[in-house]
Design brief:
The complex is a heterodimer. Chain A is mainly beta. Chain A has strands spanning 5-7, 10-13, 19-24, 31-37, 44-50, 53-56, 65-68, 75-79, 88-95, 107-108, 112-116. In chain A, strands 2, 4, 5, 6, 9, 10 and 11 form a seven-stranded mixed β-sheet that branches. A four-stranded antiparallel β-sheet of chain A has the order 1-3-8-7, with no helix packed on it. Chain B is mostly beta strands. Classes of the chains: A mainly beta, B mainly beta.
């Protein structure tokens, strides 16, 4: 596709349910990032993949959050036993090159809005 | 460590008027600075970026920003706004890292 896509666009979960959020990056992009954007806030970094390797997961808020990118393309962010504080927009971004050194522009998807009741 | 402060949460302006959205940063290392725009129900789109060189950076849709190292600022400007510029604007910086730090955003509201 032409850009980064995410699915579902909206997800409502009951507290305690598990959810899985999908990201399809731009084809050929090496780097993939997940961000959490709470209402009225800027995006906050969750985790970073270079191809299939998860190089940084320092932003994941708890061990209920898990991300994978097994074949170096599509990525899934899984949240187990969802809590109300997990309600946010989850953004995925991809970039062409590895993320270090000179800035490597990130292309963002439209996000998944998660509401936990 | 780095941080970004967007001084205004909301900026109302009339169509065809000039606008400035303010951004201040702090970083212990050299920084890269960015402005992103987010339209409703869409992802972030890069407006412009400062990596090095000229401190005046021109971006898409007629926006420009000036890097001021002494004031640690990177304010975004447009000489004449349109209704279609109504959106959320985010300033971000990254300093020697691939992880950008975003500000809380400024909502630009353009009135006819």
């Amino acid at each position: 596709g032409a850009g980064v896509s995410q699915s579902p666009r909206y997800k409502v979960a009951k507290r305690g349910q598990d959810v899985a959020l999908r990201c399809d990056p731009i084809s050929g992009h090496v780097s993939l990032f997940w961000y959490q954007q709470a209402l009225g806030q800027g995006p906050e970094f969750l985790t970073y993949f270079q191809n299939e390797a998860q190089l940084d997961k320092s932003g994941l808020p708890s061990d209920r959050f898990f991300a994978e990118r097994p074949e170096g393309s599509v990525s899934t962010l899984k949240i187990q036993r969802t809590q109300q504080e997990d309600s946010a927009v989850y953004l995925c971004a991809s970039s062409l090159r590895p993320g270090l050194a000179e800035y490597n522009e990130q292309f963002f998807g439209p996000g998944t809005r998660l509401t936990v009741l | 460590a780095q941080s970004v402060t967007q001084l205004d949460s909301q900026v109302p302006v009339f169509e065809e008027a000039p606008v400035e959205l303010r951004c201040n940063y702090s970083s212990s290392v050299s920084v890269y600075l960015f402005w992103y725009v987010q339209y409703p129900n869409q992802g972030l789109q890069l407006l412009l970026k400062y990596l090095s060189g000229s401190t005046l950076v021109k971006g898409i849709n007629g926006f420009e920003a000036e890097f001021n190292k002494s004031q640690t600022s990177f304010h975004l400007r447009k000489p004449s706004v349109h209704i279609s510029d109504t959106a959320e604007y985010f300033c971000a910086c990254s300093g020697g890292s691939y992880i950008p730090t975003f500000g809380r955003g400024t909502s630009l509201i353009v009135h006819p």
